[in-house]
């Protein structure tokens, strides 16, 4: 079960990274953790992205970190607004950093580092607007089966 691997302390660390990353950007970051991934990891991440209504942000600037723990699957997925602006290697660099920590079973550390990396790019392309920006998506880690 994902909650056996991601402890409440891990969850708080991940949530703190999301809050820090979102402090300087209008971008929205979510993390979803489940045990198994049915089918292709990017297809499943796309389903979760839709289930979490991440495509409904005003600037289409949501980023999902998807993890299937038992299947050792990971994907980071950005909405159309982000994909149109970030450098080509953006997703690969984040994925490499996250997986480097996952191989050592440092899940919260890997996710936190990846989230902060995403936040830096989001800040460059989607700066925080202190007058009109609202937190459009919940910062909590979501869990599947």
TrEMBL record:
<feature type="domain" description="TPM">
    <location>
        <begin position="4"/>
        <end position="119"/>
    </location>
</feature>
<protein>
    <submittedName>
        <fullName>TPM domain-containing protein</fullName>
    </submittedName>
</protein>
<dbReference type="Pfam" id="PF04536">
    <property type="entry name" value="TPM_phosphatase"/>
</dbReference>
<dbReference type="InterPro" id="IPR007621">
    <property type="entry name" value="TPM_dom"/>
</dbReference>
């Amino acid at each position: 079960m994902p909650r056996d691997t991601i402890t409440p302390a891990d969850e708080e660390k991940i949530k703190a990274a999301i809050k820090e990353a979102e402090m300087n950007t209008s971008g929205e970051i979510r993390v979803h953790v489940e045990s198994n991934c049915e089918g292709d990891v990017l297809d499943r991440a796309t389903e979760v992205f839709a289930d979490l209504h991440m495509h409904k942000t005003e600037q289409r600037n949501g980023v999902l970190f998807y993890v299937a723990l038992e299947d050792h699957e990971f994907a980071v997925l950005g909405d159309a607004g982000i994909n149109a602006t970030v450098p080509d290697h953006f997703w690969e660099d984040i994925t490499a950093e996250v997986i480097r920590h996952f191989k050592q079973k440092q899940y919260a550390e890997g996710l936190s580092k990846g989230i902060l990396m995403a936040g830096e790019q989001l800040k460059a392309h989607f700066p925080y607007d202190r007058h009109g920006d609202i937190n459009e998506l919940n910062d909590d880690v979501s869990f599947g089966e």
